[in-house]
C-alpha cells in the first residue's frame, strides 16, 4: 500500500517542483505571481492576491484613516454572507460612533456638507434649455415671430454680410456727422481705427470658421473610410496595465474559484485555481474606425484589438527581459477521501486578435452610456498552449494532437457565434448594471402563439415526411420552450401558446423548426428570426408570417403571433412610490441559505444539499439549484423567476434534497407557503427564517419580489372591482392664504384642487390664476367603495411648461361621513351628516400653510343584486386551459406536462419567524398538521367573510329591472371597457356631462389592437339630459390632452344600449379615420336632491333681444345722445350694439346669444354709453339683468332701469330673454374661467328648439338608430355633431310658427347652430357669395379696420375706412366652395400708413353648418372673433354656378388683383395660424 502511494506521490512532487521553479524564475524578474494553497478557501486566496497587489507603491500619500474596499463585479451569484455570521449580530460602525465631533472651520469655496439646493425651474442650464429644444410646441394661434427680420426679409437676405453693410453705413454717417460739425482729423482717425479693428476681427473669425468647417468635413469623410491608430491609448494601457493587472487577477480569482468549487463534477474531489496571471504586456488597440453618420445619441466604432504577450517587436529589450507571459494553473484533485492526488493543468502563451464593432447609446443621466452593443465582424484568432500533464517543462501541448486544436477552436466559435458574431450582438445595459438591479431580472413576458407552418421542404433519412416541432430560443441560445411534434406532415398546425421571460428587447426571438427522430439527434429544418425591438412600437403583432431559412435558402413559412407584457413601474401615490397591485405578474424567488439541516439519513453526517422549487401541485420542478458539497449549512444565494397567473391562490413548495451519486436522492425537508404570505415578509428583515417540515431540524432563509405585469385587466379588472356604496358630494368653496411658490418671480400661485383616491385623480377644479385666496365654488361627486377609503384634496399650482407643484393637501376619510345602516333595506350605509369645515393645508412634515374651505356629504347608493361583470381569464390561464385541452385530445410530446402530473400538497407554514423565536420554542418534528389546522381555520374565516359579503350583495339586495333602473335620474354608471381596434395607440377617456376632467381613463394601449379590460365609473346627475363623451387620447400623461378621435351621445340612450350587454362604438377624427371600442355598463342609482345651480336648467344659451331704450340721459350739448349698449357676463364683454345717433329713445331691435355656465352665479349686466368721435365714450347708466327666474323656452320681457353713481337713476331699456338649457363644457386650460364665457358643446337632442310645446316630451326619443355591431339589434345613440363655438346664424327668409314665439312683440327665434342635412356638403364646387356687412367691438381704441377673407386658396380684402371700433363695409366677394373647402377664415386688421398692419381679431366660420344644400342656401351669420368683437356677414350659395368651370386658373394670383393699400410702406407679413 505504501509503495502504491509513493508511486503516485513521486510524479506529483516532480510536477509541482517544476511549476515552482518556473514561478520563481518569473518572480526573479520582478513580476507579481499569485500562488495559492490548493485547499485554501477563496477568501484566503483573494487575500493573498491582495497582499501582492499592496506591494505596488503609490506616489500619493495614503491617509490611514480613509478605508476603501474594492467591489467585484461578476455575472455569477456571489455569496453576500457566510455561515459564521448567520448567528452573530454585526456591530455596525454607525452604532459605535456616538460622540459628537467638533465642527471643522469652514473653508471659503469648499463644497457644502449637506444637499445642494434645488435649481429653480426657471433657470436655463445647458444648451438644450437655452435652445428650448425640449419646450412643447405652441398651440395654434400662439406662434410668435422669432426675429423681426423674418417679418420683412427672407433668410437668404441677412447674415454676416448684413453686419458688414451696417458697419459701412455707420462709417459713412459717422464721418458725415464729424465733418458736418467741424470735428478734426483726429476723430476721423479714431473712427477709421474702430472700423479697421472690427473689419480685421470679423475677417479673422470668418477665415477661422471657414477653415474649421472645411477641416471638419474632410475629417468626417476620412473617419468613415480610413482607420486611424490609437498609440496614445496604447501608451496609457502599457502603464496602467502594470497597476490594474493585480486587481483584475484578484477579481477573477475571487469569483471564478468560487464557481469552480461549486460546479465540480462528481468524479473529481475539487477544482482549484492555484496560479493566475495575465502577464506584463497589456492588450493593444491596433486601429480604430469611426462612423460619423449616425444618430446624435449613437456612437459606433470598429476596433482592431490584440493581446499578444509573446510578440516582443514593439517593446524595448529591457521590457523584454522583464516580460512575464500569461499563466494559469488549475489544480485538479482526483480520488475520494484519503486516496486523492492533485494534478496541475497549465495554460499559457495566450494570444488573441480580432476586429470588434462597438456601438454605444448615450443618455442624459449617469453613467451617460445606456447600452453598449459589442460584436465581432469576423472570427477572432485565438491561440494558446495547454499542457494537462507534466507541467511547464515535461508537459505536452495538446495542440500537437492532429485535429484536436481545430475541434476546440470550432467549439469556441460555435459558442461565441450566436452571442457576439455579426450580425448578433452582445448587449451590456450599463444603466441597469449600475442601478443595482440584477442583470438577469425580467422586464416582461412575451407570449408566443405558434399557429402553423406551411410548405416545409425536408425529408427523413430513408424517405418519409418529417415530424416537425418548433423550438423557441433567444439569439439561438439554450432552448426556452418547444411545441409538440406533428407526425408525418409538411404543413403542421400547432396552435400552442408559450410564455417566455425576457430581460432585454434588443435581441432576437428565434423559432427553430426541427424534425423529431426517435433514436438519433433531431434534424434541423430551418429557423425564422423575429426582432424583439419591434415590440416597443406595437406590443401586439398578430398574423406574422416569416420565411423559414436554412443556409440562406427558403425552406417554408411559419405563422405565429407575438404579444409583449411589460413589467409595471412604481407609481407615486401621495409622495410615496408604491407598486401597483395586480393578480398576475412575475415572481423573483431568491433562496439565500439553509441552516441546521437534518443529517440523520447520512452515514458521514455531511450533506450535499440542493433545493428544488415546485409550483402548485405539480411534480415537475420549476428550478433546481447547484449542489453545495459536504455541509449542513449551505449558502446558495440563487434566484429564479417564473410567471404567476393568480397571486391569491398560488402555493410555492421548496424541497431540500441530499444529492447522492448513484442512489436515490432523499428529501431532507420541505416547506409549502402561500405566495401572498411570502410577499408580506419585510425584505428589510434579513434574519427571518422559514422552518422545514418532515425533518428533525432545519430552516431556510429566502426572499421574494413581486413584479406586476401590464396585462389586460391587471390594474382595474373585473376580478378586482368592488361595487360602490355611495358617493361623496364635495363642495370645494375656497382656500385662503395658500403657499406662494411664485414669490421669487414676483408673481402668485395659480391654484386648483384635485381629488385623489388610491392615487388616482377622480376630480379637479378649475385654475384660478395669480391668486393666493382662490374661490372655486364647485361641486364634485366622487364614488366610494368602502368606509376605510380616504380622499386627498391636494392643492396644486398650475405650470404651463413644467409639472404642476403641490401646495399641500387635506385628507378626508369616508368613515367620518358614513356608517352602516342595518335597519334600512334599501341602503347598506347611511350618512352621518354633512361636514362643513375649514381645514389647514398640510404642506409636509409638521408644517401647514393656508386653509381649505369645503363641505362634504355622503349619499348612499341603492343596495342592488348582481353588480358585477363576467370575469374573463387572462392570457396565461387561457393558455394553460388550452394546453390541457390539447393534452386531453392526444397531443404528442417528448416530456410530460407539468400541469397533468400532480400531487396533493398542504401549506406547512404561513409566516416567517425570527432567530429568537426559533431558539425559544422546540422544533416540531412535523409541523404540517398544526399549520394545516391553522390554515383551515384561516381559510374558513376567509370563506365566511367572503360568503357574508356575497350574501349581503346577492341575497339581501334589491333587484330592479332595466326599465326601473333607468327611471332613476341620478346614479353611478359602471363602465367595463373591454377593448377595441384603434388607428393609433391611445388611452380612452370617458367624460360625463362636461369635458373638464374625465370620469376615468384607461391605460395607454400597447397596440392598435387594444385589450384594456378596465372597469371605471362616473356619476350622472340627470340621466335624461346627460351626455357621454368617449375620447381617444394619444398622450401617455393623464394631465395632457392629445385627442385623436371622439364619440359623444345621449347618456340615457347610451345606457340603454350597453346595460348588461356589450356594444361597439365608432370614434372618428377630423380625417374620418375610425376606431371602435367595446363597452359594457351597469347602473347603480344614487338618490340625490340637486341644488338649483347643479341642474341642466341652470346652464345653457340665452337669446337676448335688445328692443329699445327710453328717457336716456342727455350727454351732448344739443340735449341728445349717441347711445350704444354693452352687455357683460361675469366681467367679460359679450355684445356691443350699434350706435344710434342723436336720440334719447333709441330703437335697436338687435339680437345676440350668450352661453351662460350658471344662471345662479351669473353676473349679467348692461351699460349704455354715449359715443364720442374725439373723446372717450361716456356712461349713461348701467343695470343688472336677473337670469334666475327665466323659464326655459319661454320668452320673458324685462325693463332694466339704468343708474349711475353721479346722476342716479335715469332711463330704461327693454329686452326680451329666451333660455335654452344646454350643457356648457369647460375648457381645461391655464385660464380660470370659461373660454369665451363657456361653450355649448351639445344640444338637447341636437335639434333646434323653439320655445313652447313638444320639447321636453320628445327628448327621450331623439336618438333612435339601429346599431348592427352589438350582440343583438339595439337602439344605439349615434354621435352628436359638435356645434361650432361662437357662431350664430339665421337662414334668410325663415319664419317660425311656434305658438310661444308668434306673439306680436316676438321676433324670430333661431338656433345657435344648425345640424347639417342628410345630403351633406356638395361634392362639386359652387359659387359662395360672402357679403362682409360689419363688425363690432374689434378694438378698445378707434382704428382703421379692414377685413381679409379666405376660402381655400382664394383671398379677398375689404377697404379700410375712418377710425372706428364698429366698422361697416357691405362688400361682397365670390368664392368657390365645396365639401373640401368647409372653412371661411376672417382676419380683421388695423391699417397703418407706416409699418406693419396690426391684427385686431380673427375668426372662423363653418360654411356647411349654416348653408344646407336643398334647404337653406342663404344665411346671415354672426361669428365671435378671437381677440374681441363680433363680425356679421351674409352667405349665399349657388350650387349650379361652378366658378372653376369658367376660370380654370383660380390660384393664389388673386392677391395681385386685390385693392392695395394707399401707402407703399404698409407691409404685412404672414397671418397668424396660416401654414
Describe this structure in words.
The chain is of the alpha+beta class. Helices cover 17% and strands 35% of the residues. Strand 5 (339-362) and strand 6 form a beta hairpin.
What is the molecular shape? globular
User: What composes the largest sheet?
Assistant: 8 strands, antiparallel
Secondary structure tally: strands: 66
Helix content bin: 10-25%
SS element count, helices: 20
Oligomer: single chain
**Rounded average pLDDT:** 75
* Straight-line distance between termini: 101 Å
**Per DSSP, what share of the residues sits in E-state strands of 2 or more residues?**
25-35%
Content-based structural category: alpha+beta
Regions with little confidence, pLDDT below 50 for 5+ residues: 1-12, 53-103, 139-146, 893-900, 921-955, 1229-1284, 1294-1319, 1446-1475
Measured on Cα atoms, how large is the radius of gyration?
42 Å
Q: What is shown here, in short?
A:
The protein is an alpha+beta fold and about 1500 residues long. Helix content is about 15%, strand content about 35%. It is built from 20 helices and 66 strands.
SSE order and pairing:
Layout: H1 2-28, H2 42-54, H3 93-96, H4 127-131, H5 149-152, H6 160-180, H7 185-225, H8 231-262, E1 268-277, E2 284-290, E3 298-307, H9 317-321, E4 327-336, E5 339-362, E6 369-376, E7 381-387, H10 391-394, H11 404-420, E8 426-429, H12 430-434, E9 444-454, E10 468-474, E11 479-482, E12 493-502, E13 508-515, E14 523-531, E15 540-550, E16 553-566, E17 571-573, E18 576-578, E19 585-595, E20 609-615, E21 623-624, E22 635-644, E23 651-658, E24 667-674, H13 675-679, E25 688-691, E26 699-708, E27 726-736, E28 751-757, E29 760-764, E30 775-784, E31 790-797, E32 805-813, E33 818-820, E34 829-831, E35 835-844, E36 847-860, H14 875-888, E37 913-914, H15 915-920, H16 928-954, H17 962-967, E38 971-981, E39 987-992, E40 1000-1001, E41 1009-1020, E42 1027-1033, E43 1043-1050, H18 1051-1058, E44 1063-1068, E45 1074-1085, E46 1100-1110, E47 1123-1129, E48 1132-1136, E49 1147-1156, E50 1164-1170, E51 1178-1185, E52 1196-1204, E53 1208-1221, E54 1224-1225, E55 1239-1240, E56 1266-1267, E57 1274-1275, E58 1287-1291, E59 1326-1336, E60 1345-1351, E61 1354-1357, E62 1368-1377, ...
Antiparallel strand pairs: 1-4, 2-3, 3-5, 4-5, 5-6, 5-7, 6-8, 9-12, 9-16, 10-11, 10-13, 13-14, 15-16, 17-18, 19-22, 19-26, 20-21, 20-23, 23-24, 25-26, 25-37, 27-30, 27-36, 28-29, 28-31, 31-32, 33-34, 35-36, 38-41, 38-45, 39-40, 39-42, 42-43, 44-45, 46-49, 46-53, 47-48, 47-50, 50-51, 52-53, ...
Helix pairs in contact: 2-8, 6-7
Amino acid at each position: 500500500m505504501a509503495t502504491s502511494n509513493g508511486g503516485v506521490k513521486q510524479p506529483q512532487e516532480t510536477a509541482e517542483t517544476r511549476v515552482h521553479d518556473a514561478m520563481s524564475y518569473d518572480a526573479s524578474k520582478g513580476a507579481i505571481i499569485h500562488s495559492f494553497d490548493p485547499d485554501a478557501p477563496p477568501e484566503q486566496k483573494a487575500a493573498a492576491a491582495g497582499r501582492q497587489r499592496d506591494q505596488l507603491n503609490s506616489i500619493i500619500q495614503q491617509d490611514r484613516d480613509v478605508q476603501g474596499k474594492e467591489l467585484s463585479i461578476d455575472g455569477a451569484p456571489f455569496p453576500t454572507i457566510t455561515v459564521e455570521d448567520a448567528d452573530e449580530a454585526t456591530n455596525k460602525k454607525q452604532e459605535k460612533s456616538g460622540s459628537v465631533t467638533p465642527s471643522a472651520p469652514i473653508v471659503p469655496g469648499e463644497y457644502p456638507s449637506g444637499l445642494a439646493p434645488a435649481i429653480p425651474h426657471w433657470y436655463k442650464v445647458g444648451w438644450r434649455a437655452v435652445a428650448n429644444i425640449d419646450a412643447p410646441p405652441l398651440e395654434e394661434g400662439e406662434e410668435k415671430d422669432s426675429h423681426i427680420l423674418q417679418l420683412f426679409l427672407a433668410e437668404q437676405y441677412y447674415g454676416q454680410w448684413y453686419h458688414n453693410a451696417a458697419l459701412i453705413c455707420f462709417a459713412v454717417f459717422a464721418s458725415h456727422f464729424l465733418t458736418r460739425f467741424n470735428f478734426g482729423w483726429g476723430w476721423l482717425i479714431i473712427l477709421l481705427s474702430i472700423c479697421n479693428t472690427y473689419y480685421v476681427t470679423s475677417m479673422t473669425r470668418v477665415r477661422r470658421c471657414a477653415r474649421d468647417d472645411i477641416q471638419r468635413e474632410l475629417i468626417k469623410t476620412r473617419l468613415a473610410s480610413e482607420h486611424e491608430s490609437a498609440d496614445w491609448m496604447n501608451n496609457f494601457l502599457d502603464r496602467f496595465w502594470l497597476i490594474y493587472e493585480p486587481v483584475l487577477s484578484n477579481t477573477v480569482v475571487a469569483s471564478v474559484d468560487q464557481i469552480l468549487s461549486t460546479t465540480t463534477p462528481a468524479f473529481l474531489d475539487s477544482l482549484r485555481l492555484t496560479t493566475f496571471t495575465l502577464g506584463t504586456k497589456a492588450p493593444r488597440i491596433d486601429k480604430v474606425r469611426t462612423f460619423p453618420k449616425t444618430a446624435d445619441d449613437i456612437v459606433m466604432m470598429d476596433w482592431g484589438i490584440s493581446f499578444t504577450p509573446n510578440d516582443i517587436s514593439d517593446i524595448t529589450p529591457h521590457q523584454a527581459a522583464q516580460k512575464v507571459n500569461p499563466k494559469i494553473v488549475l489544480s485538479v484533485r482526483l480520488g475520494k477521501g484519503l486516496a486523492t492526488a492533485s494534478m496541475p493543468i497549465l495554460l499559457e502563451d495566450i494570444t488573441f486578435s480580432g476586429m470588434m464593432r462597438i456601438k454605444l447609446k448615450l443618455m442624459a443621466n449617469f453613467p451617460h452610456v445606456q447600452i453598449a452593443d459589442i460584436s465581432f465582424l469576423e472570427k477572432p484568432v485565438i491561440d494558446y498552449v495547454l499542457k494537462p500533464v507534466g507541467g511547464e517543462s515535461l508537459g505536452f501541448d495538446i495542440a500537437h494532437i492532429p485535429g484536436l486544436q481545430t475541434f476546440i477552436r470550432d467549439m469556441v466559435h460555435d459558442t461565441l457565434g450566436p452571442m457576439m458574431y455579426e450580425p448578433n450582438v452582445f448587449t451590456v445595459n450599463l444603466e441597469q448594471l449600475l442601478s443595482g438591479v440584477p442583470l438577469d431580472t425580467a422586464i416582461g413576458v412575451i407570449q408566443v402563439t405558434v399557429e402553423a407552418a406551411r410548405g416545409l421542404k425536408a425529408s427523413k433519412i430513408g424517405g418519409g415526411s418529417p415530424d416537425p416541432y418548433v423550438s423557441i430560443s433567444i439569439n439561438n441560445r439554450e432552448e426556452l420552450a418547444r411545441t409538440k411534434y406533428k407526425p408525418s406532415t409538411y404543413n403542421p398546425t400547432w396552435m400552442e401558446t408559450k410564455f417566455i421571460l425576457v430581460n432585454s428587447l434588443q435581441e432576437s426571438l428565434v423559432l427553430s423548426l426541427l424534425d423529431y427522430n426517435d433514436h438519433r439527434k433531431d434534424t434541423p429544418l430551418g429557423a425564422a428570426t423575429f426582432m424583439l425591438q419591434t415590440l416597443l412600437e406595437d406590443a401586439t403583432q398578430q398574423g406574422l408570417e416569416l420565411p423559414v431559412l436554412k443556409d440562406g435558402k427558403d425552406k417554408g413559412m411559419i405563422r405565429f403571433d407575438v404579444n409583449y407584457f411589460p413589467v409595471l413601474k412604481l407609481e407615486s401615490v401621495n409622495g410615496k412610490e408604491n407598486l401597483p397591485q395586480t393578480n398576475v405578474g412575475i415572481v423573483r424567488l431568491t433562496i439565500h441559505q439553509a441552516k441546521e439541516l437534518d443529517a440523520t439519513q447520512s452515514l458521514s453526517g455531511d450533506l450535499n444539499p440542493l433545493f428544488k422549487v415546485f409550483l402548485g401541485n405539480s411534480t415537475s420542478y420549476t428550478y433546481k439549484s447547484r449542489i453545495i458539497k459536504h455541509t449542513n449549512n449551505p449558502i446558495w444565494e440563487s434566484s429564479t423567476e417564473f410567471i404567476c397567473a393568480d397571486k391569491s391562490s398560488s402555493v410555492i413548495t421548496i424541497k431540500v434534497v441530499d444529492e447522492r451519486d448513484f442512489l436515490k436522492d432523499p428529501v431532507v425537508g420541505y416547506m409549502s407557503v402561500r405566495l401572498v404570505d411570502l410577499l408580506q415578509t419585510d425584505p428589510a428583515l434579513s434574519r427571518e427564517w422559514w422552518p422545514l417540515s418532515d425533518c428533525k431540524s432545519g430552516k431556510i432563509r429566502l426572499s421574494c419580489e413581486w413584479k406586476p405585469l401590464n396585462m389586460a385587466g391587471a390594474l382595474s379588472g373585473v376580478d378586482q372591482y368592488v361595487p360602490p356604496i355611495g358617493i361623496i358630494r364635495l363642495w370645494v368653496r375656497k382656500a385662503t392664504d395658500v403657499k406662494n411658490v411664485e414669490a421669487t418671480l414676483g408673481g402668485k400661485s395659480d391654484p386648483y384642487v384635485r381629488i385623489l383616491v388610491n392615487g388616482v385623480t377622480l376630480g379637479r377644479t378649475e385654475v384660478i390664476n395669480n391668486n393666493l385666496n382662490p374661490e372655486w365654488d364647485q361641486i364634485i361627486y366622487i364614488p366610494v367603495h368602502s368606509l376605510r377609503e380616504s380622499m386627498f384634496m391636494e392643492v396644486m399650482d398650475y405650470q404651463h411648461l413644467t409639472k404642476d407643484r403641490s401646495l399641500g393637501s387635506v385628507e378626508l376619510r369616508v368613515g367620518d361621513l358614513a356608517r352602516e345602516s342595518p335597519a334600512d333595506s334599501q341602503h347598506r350605509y347611511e350618512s352621518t351628516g354633512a361636514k362643513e369645515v375649514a381645514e389647514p393645508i398640510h404642506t409636509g412634515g409638521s408644517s401647514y400653510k393656508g386653509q381649505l374651505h369645503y363641505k362634504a356629504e355622503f349619499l348612499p347608493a341603492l343596495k342592488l343584486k348582481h353588480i358585477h361583470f363576467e370575469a374573463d381569464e387572462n392570457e396565461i390561464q387561457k393558455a394553460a386551459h388550452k394546453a390541457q385541452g390539447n393534452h386531453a385530445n392526444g397531443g404528442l410530446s417528448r416530456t410530460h406536462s407539468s400541469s397533468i402530473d400532480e400531487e396533493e400538497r398542504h401549506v406547512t407554514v404561513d409566516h416567517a419567524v425570527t432567530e429568537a423565536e426559533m431558539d425559544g420554542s422546540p422544533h416540531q418534528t412535523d409541523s404540517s398538521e398544526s399549520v394545516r389546522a391553522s390554515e383551515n381555520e384561516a381559510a374558513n374565516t376567509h370563506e365566511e367573510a367572503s360568503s357574508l359579503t356575497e350574501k349581503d350583495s346577492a341575497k339581501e339586495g334589491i333587484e330592479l329591472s332595466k326599465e326601473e333602473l333607468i327611471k332613476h335620474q341620478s346614479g353611478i354608471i359602471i363602465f367595463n371597457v373591454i377593448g377595441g381596434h384603434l388607428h393609433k395607440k391611445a388611452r380612452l377617456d370617458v367624460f360625463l356631462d362636461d369635458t373638464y376632467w374625465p370620469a376615468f381613463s384607461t391605460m395607454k394601449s400597447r397596440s392598435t389592437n387594444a385589450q384594456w379590460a378596465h372597469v371605471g365609473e362616473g356619476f350622472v346627475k340627470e340621466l335624461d339630459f346627460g351626455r357621454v363623451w368617449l375620447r381617444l387620447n394619444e398622450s401617455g400623461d393623464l394631465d395632457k390632452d392629445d385627442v385623436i378621435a371622439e364619440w359623444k351621445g345621449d347618456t340615457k340612450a347610451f345606457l340603454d344600449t350597453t346595460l348588461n350587454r356589450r356594444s361597439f362604438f365608432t370614434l372618428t377624427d377630423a380625417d374620418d379615420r375610425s376606431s371602435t371600442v367595446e363597452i359594457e355598463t351597469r347602473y347603480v342609482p344614487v338618490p340625490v336632491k340637486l341644488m338649483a345651480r347643479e341642474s341642466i336648467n341652470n346652464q345653457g344659451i340665452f337669446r337676448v333681444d335688445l328692443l329699445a331704450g327710453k328717457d336716456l340721459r342727455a350727454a351732448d350739448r344739443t340735449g341728445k345722445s349717441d347711445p350704444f349698449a354693452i352687455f357683460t357676463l361675469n366681467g367679460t364683454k359679450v355684445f356691443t350694439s350699434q350706435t344710434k345717433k342723436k336720440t334719447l329713445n333709441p330703437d335697436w331691435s338687435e339680437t345676440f346669444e350668450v352661453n351662460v355656465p350658471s344662471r345662479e352665479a351669473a353676473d349679467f349686466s348692461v351699460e349704455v354709453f354715449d359715443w364720442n368721435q374725439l373723446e372717450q365714450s361716456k356712461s349713461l347708466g348701467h343695470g343688472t339683468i336677473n337670469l334666475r327666474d327665466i323659464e326655459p323656452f319661454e320668452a320673458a320681457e324685462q325693463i332694466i332701469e339704468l343708474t349711475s353713481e353721479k346722476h342716479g337713476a335715469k332711463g330704461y331699456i327693454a329686452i326680451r330673454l329666451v333660455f335654452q338649457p344646454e350643457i356648457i363644457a369647460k375648457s381645461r386650460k391655464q385660464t380660470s374661467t370659461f373660454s369665451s364665457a363657456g361653450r355649448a358643446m351639445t344640444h338637447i337632442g341636437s335639434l333646434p328648439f323653439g320655445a313652447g310645446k313638444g320639447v321636453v316630451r320628445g327628448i327621450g326619443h331623439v336618438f333612435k338608430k339601429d346599431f348592427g355591431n352589438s350582440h343583438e339589434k339595439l337602439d344605439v345613440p349615434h354621435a352628436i355633431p359638435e356645434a361650432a363655438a361662437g357662431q350664430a346664424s339665421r337662414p334668410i327668409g325663415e319664419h317660425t310658427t311656434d305658438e310661444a314665439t308668434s306673439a306680436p312683440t316676438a321676433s324670430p327665434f333661431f338656433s345657435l347652430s344648425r345640424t347639417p342635412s342628410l345630403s351633406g356638403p356638395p361634392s362639386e364646387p359652387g359659387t359662395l357669395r360672402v357679403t362682409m356687412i360689419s363688425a363690432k367691438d374689434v378694438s378698445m381704441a378707434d382704428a382703421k379696420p379692414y377685413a381679409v377673407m379666405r376660402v381655400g386658396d382664394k383671398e379677398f380684402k375689404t377697404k379700410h375706412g375712418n377710425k372706428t371700433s364698429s366698422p361697416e363695409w357691405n362688400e361682397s366677394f365670390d368664392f368657390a366652395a365645396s365639401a373640401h373647402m368647409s372653412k371661411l377664415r376672417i382676419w380683421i386688421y388695423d391699417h397703418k400708413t407706416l409699418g406693419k398692419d396690426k391684427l385686431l381679431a380673427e375668426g372662423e366660420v363653418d360654411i356647411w353648418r349654416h348653408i344646407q344644400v336643398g334647404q337653406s342656401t342663404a344665411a346671415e351669420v354672426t361669428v365671435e372673433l378671437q381677440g374681441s368683437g363680433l363680425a356679421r356677414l351674409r352667405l349665399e350659395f349657388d350650387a349650379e354656378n361652378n366658378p372653376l368651370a369658367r376660370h380654370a386658373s383660380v390660384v393664389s394670383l388673386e392677391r395681385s388683383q386685390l385693392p392695395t393699400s394707399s401707402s407703399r410702406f404698409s407691409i404685412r407679413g404672414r397671418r397668424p395660424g396660416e401654414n
